[in-house]
């Protein structure tokens, strides 16, 4: 295939440090992250949002000639970056250097003319490219290369793991293989930006912010896209230009203040509803309707308004993301920022979290269906807690991050103190030099023997505490401290987790004794823990005592039916 430079850089554009190609995640590979500039979470998010606003999503014919395509689009202004991907169709993500280019392109676009159906004239940044004259295209060697948005197949993963040189190397390999790519991160922010355009039809000046694993450094390819509608920006003075909006539509119990002049104070007339929950439900209900009726590419819209945290769930077909849209969720954004900090402090953190998440998914401890299972969020908290418990600690407690905070870091949300230091440079790196192999084994041993019956997990203080209630698994929400983030987990699911943790610690213990070696064809190390179909090491099984061997057999059978999931996009929650 002819090679075309995939990216055209505009001078002066900067990439965010998280997962970007310009500043690759060398840290994750080498274990040293000192040389990587550590941006603040807010800076990264701001930069990504601006990037997304200059970007369009184009459905293309799949034999598109990349060079001609770029030439055609460049008429509207220089292009900073572009890539193609496939997801039930062939798509291009094109980021212009200037926002004006998007307007120029949109002004040239037509409303489709269909004889049987009627199009709702919503002009978004999701476009469709048609060829005027099919015979003009020379598809052969000229068609564009696509960027992969899915995780590797389980076969490929096990191959990669078996070729690694050590268990540490395996953990970093798994991280590199599953972490969100630069393109996937861009696509996530673009999807939020496109949804924002739709929501802005009702609430001009609103912001749709991604949170959760899409932004907290723990996202795996295929994970869902959590986003929330932030209406707080509307009230801020710097968006006063949008105040001409028809605010009578805005349903909220809070009042919006505009400038105080002399003895006068002007407020908007607003519709009031009895509670914030009802306001949230009403807002999400209309946005849900909007997405369902007018949102290009939004399908399967479900309004789940009676949940503790009301949400609208839908599929964004073109990007392939399963989206969960909530509102009023600034605490969840704050917890994403906290995880971002933990994930950026030490390269071992993400490597360990990814392996534990994949391990849990491979053993069906987590599921994409909501239920009594442990979630990825809970597993991440458990890893963070475990790393706070090492000697010396690998991660600081939330209380110590709070004590490092400056006045500008102060943050109180809904009466909860969410203050912590946000400048990564002000946090002293850990002096702990333990290997990932040791940490993984110790993680399984630690939680295989944890007194879940009486203790809770608390990353704020970094030590076990008495459980305040009888939930089988109690992990304190770091900011809403009266909440248990794993309230849903049943005793039997917890028991399954404990047994698997013990078995996995045992398997790693055998590896320590030199069986089998990295050159072996048998799955070893991390691969043995993820257990592909029929890949039990006979040498390991033989050495085991009878009851344990029986257990592993049962486990293998269970895994056999589930391991295909690894290749299916690991929605793994
Ligand atoms: N969250 C929370 N309390 C919970 C569940 C979720 O505060 N009991 C917040 C967390 O900030 C979490 C986010 O909501 O990161 C999104 O939840 P979820 O999608 O379940 O977790 P992710 O961290 O995004 O992980 P996954 O990759 O499984 O989606
Ligand atoms: Mg999520």
List the helices and strands and how they pair.
Elements: H1 26-30, H2 41-53, E1 55-60, H3 66-74, E2 79-86, E3 90-96, H4 99-108, E4 126-128, H5 154-163, H6 167-178, H7 182-199, E5 207-211, E6 225-230, E7 257-261, E8 264-267, H8 276-294, E9 298-304, E10 311-316, E11 321-327, H9 330-345, H10 347-362, H11 376-388, H12 398-403, E12 412-413, E13 416-417, H13 436-448, E14 455-456, E15 465-466, H14 491-512, H15 526-530, H16 538-543, H17 546-562
Parallel strand pairs: 1-4, 6-11
Antiparallel strand pairs: 1-3, 2-3, 5-6, 7-8, 9-10, 10-11, 12-13, 14-15
The structure holds cytidine-5'-triphosphate and magnesium ion.
List its salient traits.
573 residues; alpha+beta; 5-stranded mixed sheet; 4-stranded mixed sheet; 17 helices; globular; disordered N terminus; disordered C terminus; binds cytidine-5'-triphosphate; binds magnesium ion
Quick description:
The chain is α+β, with helices and mostly antiparallel strands and 573 residues long. It is built from 17 helices and 15 strands.
How does this model look, in words?
Helix 10 crosses helix 11 (376-388). The protein has helices at 26-30, 41-53, 66-74, 99-108, 154-163, 167-178, 182-199, 276-294, 330-345, 347-362, 376-388, 398-403, 436-448, 491-512, 526-530, 538-543, 546-562, and strands at residues 55-60, 79-86, 90-96, 126-128, 207-211, 225-230, 257-261, 264-267, 298-304, 311-316, 321-327, 412-413, 416-417, 455-456, 465-466. With 573 residues, it is of the alpha+beta class. Residues 1-9, 11-34, 239-255, 536-551 and 557-573 have low confidence and may be disordered. The strands form 5 sheets. A 5-stranded mixed beta sheet has the order 5-6-11-10-9, sandwiched between helices. A 4-stranded mixed beta sheet has the order 2-3-1-4, sandwiched between helices. The chain has a two-stranded antiparallel sheet with strand order 7-8. The longest helix is centred in the C-terminal third of the chain and has 22 residues, at 491-512. Helices cover 37% and strands 13% of the residues. It starts with 25 loop residues before the first helix and ends in an 11-residue tail after the last helix. It contains 17 helices and 15 strands. Magnesium ion is lined by residues 212-213, 223-224, 226. Cytidine-5'-triphosphate (CTP) is lined by residues 211-213, 216, 219, 223-224, 226, 332, 335-336, 375-377, 485, 573.
